[in-house]
């Protein structure tokens, strides 16, 4: 008998058990909420810009002398979803190798960032693009021309990689 | 032009019915918008604002979507009842408007035209109670004809709930009948003419609360919406409905809500009367401006109660089924009976 708890103090008083005063208080709270500021972002007009640590779609870095990629094939090998296809070719520049064909199938890409992590040249980085739209499955296989992005636009991500990798 | 021959009467009733049914349809569409916007504001967000200015065309987009959907009837369902149920629900929801007075009369070209199809029939109240009782059939039929466990349970629960709360609804109206000595709705509204302290809310506060709670239960609105609650019953009695049939249930629910708001404002808040005696406006009785003012007053009251229905939906949590039934039989019914006793004794005392 000693370890039983008394619930008498939790019983509702008569006025409380009517519930109507409580409901009226609740209605007052809800009514006041109607006049407080709203938190909706009007999407196509107000876009959200992610910060440097965000993993968006993978892009190839384009410098003045061309792409940084040497077509080593490490990204293709490490990709868990088998989304990258690289075909190497020879070039006269110092780096000696360049990708003739570099394709990422965005319908397979899982945005994990492994390709960026394994790349020895920092030639493929995860950009900030998150709204990727296709109307046809063939449009989803991005070739080199849609993957090349000038290095000035990728500074946030490169800064993040420098700090944390 | 005789205005008492049967053809003229039918024509007049037909035109009024057409106008009223259009008003109710537009009102149901507006209610969709009202519900989504008010729900959003209560939840600190903006509701639909893309489809028209402030999202006003959103209900029409919803209706177009529902028309485009494929109409699925489960293979094991009873086809004819499955088709009949939403139609029945909708017909009943619209039929109560036949006896609601929207205003006093209007003098058009020498004839006195009453605003409302049959507002002064001397069985108005009985007709309304009868129609709400038949409204149970729509939902029961829907639940049973879908031939699915969840729909059946939802339909049974809904019909039991509606039947239980009809009793307290009827008994709370007995208080009004004792006060006004009539069943005709127009006479009840005229009984509340004058200043706002003539309104029945002042003389029947307990009856008002009982009628309000019973209307929530009759229209299956939160906190009594267990029959159609998604988490509990996967959609309840309208699980197996898609496309426009589902739309018709939706429409019937909103039309019922508008009806209940109309009835609350007619019985307890003075109907089309203004809060002050209408002679103070100086408009002659039967003129069109006065009729418009009366209609406007009624419309404002109905809109306020529709807002109240939506407001309560997004404030109060849902009742469990046993709590709901216990409330209906053990609390509402005794209170309604007590209300009748008190009203009767006060009337006898004051004679």
Please, could you describe this protein's structure?
The complex is a heterodimer of chains A (165) and B (351). Chain A has a domain at 58-164: Alpha-Beta Plaits (2-Layer Sandwich). Chain A has 6 helices and 7 strands. Chain A has helices at residues 14-17, 20-33, 74-78, 114-118, 144-147, 155-164, and strands at residues 58-63, 66-67, 84-90, 97-105, 124-126, 141-142, 148-150. The model of chain A has no long low-confidence stretch (mean pLDDT 89). In chain B, strand 1 (105-108) and strand 2 (111-114) form a beta hairpin. Chain B has one domain. Chain B contains 12 helices and 2 strands; from the N terminus they run H-H-H-E-E-H-H-H-H-H-H-H-H-H. Chain B is mainly α. Chain B has a two-stranded antiparallel ribbon with strand order 1-2. The longest helix of chain B is centred in the first third of the chain and has 37 residues, at 6-42. The chains are: A alpha+beta (165), B mainly alpha (351). Chain A binds chain B through residues 20, 23, 26-27, 29-31, 33-34, 36-40, and chain B through 38, 40-46, 209, 311-312, 314-316.
């Amino acid at each position: 008998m000693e370890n039983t708890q008394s619930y008498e103090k939790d019983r509702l008083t008569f006025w409380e058990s009517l519930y109507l005063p409580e409901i009226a208080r609740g209605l007052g709270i809800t009514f006041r909420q109607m006049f407080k500021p709203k938190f909706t972002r009007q999407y196509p007009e107000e876009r959200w810009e992610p910060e440097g640590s965000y993993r968006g779609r993978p892009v190839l870095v384009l410098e003045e002398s061309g792409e940084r990629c040497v077509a080593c094939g490490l990204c293709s090998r490490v990709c868990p979803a088998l989304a990258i296809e690289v075909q190497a070719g020879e070039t006269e520049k110092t780096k000696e190798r360049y990708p003739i064909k570099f394709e990422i199938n965005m319908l397979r890409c899982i945005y994990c960032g492994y390709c960026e992590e394994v790349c020895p040249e920092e030639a493929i980085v995860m950009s900030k693009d998150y709204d990727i739209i296709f109307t046809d499955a063939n449009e989803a296989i991005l070739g080199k021309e849609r993957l090349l992005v000038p290095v000035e636009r990728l500074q946030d991500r490169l800064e993040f990689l420098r700090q944390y990798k | 032009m005789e205005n008492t021959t049967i053809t003229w009467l039918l024509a007049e009733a037909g035109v009024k019915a057409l106008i009223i049914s259009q008003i109710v349809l537009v009102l149901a569409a507006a209610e969709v918008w009202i519900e989504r916007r008010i729900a959003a504001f209560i939840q600190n967000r903006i509701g639909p604002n893309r489809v028209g200015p402030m999202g006003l065309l959103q209900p029409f987009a919803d209706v177009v979507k529902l028309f485009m959907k494929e109409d699925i009837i489960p293979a094991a369902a009873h086809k004819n009842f499955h088709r009949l149920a939403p139609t029945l629900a909708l017909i009943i929801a619209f039929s109560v408007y036949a006896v609601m007075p929207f205003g006093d009369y209007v003098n058009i070209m020498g004839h006195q035209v009453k605003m409302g199809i049959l507002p002064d029939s001397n069985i108005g109240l009985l007709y309304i109670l009868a129609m709400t009782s038949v409204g149970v059939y729509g939902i029961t039929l829907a639940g049973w004809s879908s031939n699915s466990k969840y729909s059946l349970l939802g339909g049974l629960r809904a019909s039991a709930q509606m039947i239980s709360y009809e009793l307290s609804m009827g008994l709370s109206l007995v208080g009004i009948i004792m006060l006004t000595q009539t069943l005709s709705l127009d006479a009840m509204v005229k009984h509340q003419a004058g200043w706002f302290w003539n309104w029945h809310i002042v003389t029947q506060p307990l009856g008002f609360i009982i009628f309000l709670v019973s209307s929530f239960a009759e229209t299956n609105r939160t906190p009594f919406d267990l029959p159609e609650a998604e988490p509990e019953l996967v959609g309840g009695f309208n699980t197996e409905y898609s496309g426009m049939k589902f739309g018709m249930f939706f429409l019937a629910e909103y039309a019922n809500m508008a009806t209940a708001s109309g009835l609350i404002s007619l019985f307890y808040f003075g109907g089309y009367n203004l809060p002050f005696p209408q002679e103070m406006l100086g408009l002659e009785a039967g003129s069109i401006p006065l009729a418009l003012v009366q209609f406007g007053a009624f419309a404002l009251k109905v809109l306020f109660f529709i807002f109240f229905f939506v407001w309560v939906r997004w404030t109060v949590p849902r009742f469990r089924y046993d709590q709901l039934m216990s409330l209906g039989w053990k609390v509402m019914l005794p209170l309604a009976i007590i209300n009748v006793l008190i009203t009767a004794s006060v009337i006898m005392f004051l004679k």
